Amino acid sequence: MSKSRNAIALLVTVMFVMVISVAIAYGLQQVNSATKLVKKENSLYQMNMLVEDILNILQNSQELHSSVENNASSDFYAFLSQASFIPIEYEGISVVLKLRSARRGFNPASLNSTTSVYLKEYLGKYGITSRYVDILLDNVGGIKKDNSYNSTIFDENPYLFRDYIASAKHLRTINIYYTKEYNDNALENIDFKKLFYYGADKNTSIDLNYASTELWEFMLGCSKERAELLSSRGGFYTSYKDLDINDAEQKILKRDFKTSFLEPVIEVEVMITLNGTNSKVYFEYDIKKKRGSNFVYEI
Length: 299
Prior knowledge:
The protein is of the alpha+beta class. Helices cover 45% and strands 16% of the residues. It has two domains: 2-102 and 264-298, no CATH class; 108-260, no CATH class. It has helices at residues 2-34, 42-59, 62-66, 73-82, 113-124, 131-138, 153-156, 168-181, 192-195, 213-220, 224-232, 247-256; strands spanning 85-90, 93-101, 206-207, 259-260, 265-274, 277-286, 291-298. It has a five-stranded antiparallel beta sheet with strand order 1-2-5-6-7.
């Protein structure tokens, strides 16, 4: 039965990849023609057209939506595993489409008095002082009229957004400040791409089937080796009973973090290369709601 379901999931994924590849190739043809009429803001124009095409494909993809219709985490995991990387070429324009779970990381915007302690303990294992977490809190706490920040980051970056961390680029600015301010390169020891998720919604859940080694180590305070084991078994978790954790650790996950075993929201990364220039856009797509959100452009 399991082999049969896996074969069906693979077939569905192959069909999806074929459909989206053909559709984007057609979209690139339209972009190639349209850009001849556009001299300014070329990259943004191209990205907007492609994003509209991709959103339309996602909204009308029966293959994509069938991967979650049975509420089976293994079906969704199998789909993303097969469709995670889709390269497409058309007349000198290269597009790489990456799909992954948008609920694979911890959102710094949800930091509170409890999770801040967990994060300080985790980062401390890699030589990063607690001041770094204090700086993160400055960047997700909004504008303070009394200027009661934990750091001077906004003196050096007065226009830095401070309601939540919007993107990896935003975090890089924060990391550069910490490194220079404290003459400390320890942040290089952390792969923040595998630890954090960025966005305004503080109430998103972490899909434990996609939790990385870094995330498990942070949440449970366990050894790296044990975190690697928990991460390697992802894709088949359906309940807390499937996790090799004790009662105290289960309590931490339920009480201090918002966790889940199926979050049908994907992050879509689109990279377009034209004449040696790269442009990127990231956005989330909620499969059940058929809605895109959190669009971030890097041009």
